[in-house]
From TrEMBL:
Its main location: cytoplasm. One of its GO terms (molecular function) is protein-lysine N-methyltransferase activity. Its EC number is 2.1.1.-. GO terms for biological process: methylation. NCBIfam families: prmA (TIGR00406). SUPFAM superfamilies: S-adenosyl-L-methionine-dependent methyltransferases. InterPro entries: Ribosomal_L11_MeTrfase_PrmA (IPR050078), Ribosomal_PrmA_MeTrfase (IPR004498), SAM-dependent_MTases_sf (IPR029063). It comes from the Bacteria. HAMAP family: Methyltr_PrmA. This is Ribosomal protein L11 methyltransferase. GO terms for cellular component: cytosol; ribosome. The keyword Ubl conjugation does not apply. Keywords: Cytoplasm, Methyltransferase, Ribonucleoprotein, Ribosomal protein, S-adenosyl-L-methionine, Transferase.
Length: 295
């Protein structure tokens, strides 16, 4: 059936009030998205971030009178002293669960590693591929962001067979699963978000590596050190956790740090230089990957 969809662009300070307003008048779902191009990576525990310019989008049942809805919204926004103009559209019925296939294609990282959405086939040029099946649109990363792409390309050329890996801030589990598919002996995925651990478990099971993946909350220290440690999280969090992260690799082990904007690289390097022989920073768009070997 069709749906009535409302978009309301607002400043950050008004986003929560508009979200509550839409919920009060009967929205069946509400999402907040970036109105510009402002990066927001995974927040720290207990922290909530939204964009400076946000679009609040709501869905209403098909029988909703959109003219009455517009009038009610304009009146309520005026009463709240929020200067915003609602944009209302009718969405016709379609196969929403497959609509994302129009925008996502198989992606290659490095020479061998491919991330392939469910239902799609590898292109003909794929030779000797290592294939991970993973739907786009997951809340915790699918390889489309430069920070994840940098890590996946690095993993593709890493010496992984027989190695133990820790993925700190594992999200969807994409990095840990990629490491296992590329030959790692075992991987440990760590995250503070229970939904991330659920997503990692489901994705690992689908890719046939769940028996070699250990998942745990970030409050629980890993049971043992690892040959390779990856952390694709915010630069500020990497710096705050530098001592803890530095304790995770074995002597001579490797570390890969991402989620870092180019202008943050020197601060992150300074925090980890006492523990690692750091290599040249790798760049993709405005993001960087910092790697090194434990001293």
């Amino acid at each position: 059936m069709p749906w009535v969809q409302v978009h309301i662009p607002v400043e950050k300070a008004a986003a929560q009030a508009v979200e509550l307003l839409l919920e009060t008048i009967g929205a069946i779902s509400i999402t907040l998205t970036d109105a510009g191009d402002e990066p927001q990576l995974e927040p720290a525990p207990g922290e909530e971030r939204i964009w400076s310019e946000t679009v609040v989008t709501a869905l209403f049942e098909s029988e909703t009178d959109w003219q009455q809805l517009r009038s009610a919204l304009e009146t309520a926004l005026d009463q709240l002293n929020i200067n915003a103009t609602p944009v209302i559209e009718v969405l016709e019925e379609q196969e929403w669960e497959r609509a994302w296939l129009d925008d996502f294609k198989p992606m290659r990282f490095g020479e061998r590693l491919w991330v392939v959405p469910r239902g799609l086939q590898l292109p003909d040029e794929a030779t000797d591929p290592v294939v991970m099946t993973l739907d786009p649109g997951l809340a915790f990363g699918t390889g489309t962001h430069p920070t994840t792409a940098l890590c996946l390309e690095w993993l593709d050329q890493a010496d992984l067979p027989g190695k133990d890996v820790i993925d700190f801030g594992c999200g969807s589990g994409i990095l840990a699963i990629a490491a296992l598919l590329l030959g790692a002996r075992q991987a440990t995925g760590i995250d503070h978000d229970p939904q991330a651990l659920i997503a990692s478990e489901q994705n690992a099971e689908e890719n046939g590596v769940l028996d070699r993946l250990v998942l745990q909350n970030s409050d629980t220290p890993p049971q043992k050190s690892a040959d390779i440690v990856m952390a694709n999280i915010l630069a500020s969090v990497l710096i705050d956790l530098s001592t803890q992260l530095a304790s995770l690799p074995r002597q001579g082990g490797r570390i890969a740090l991402s989620g870092i904007l180019a202008d943050q690289a020197e601060d992150v390097r300074a925090a980890f230089d006492p523990y690692f022989r750091l290599e040249a920073t790798q760049n993709l768009d405005d993001w960087v990957l910092i790697t090194g070997t434990k001293r």
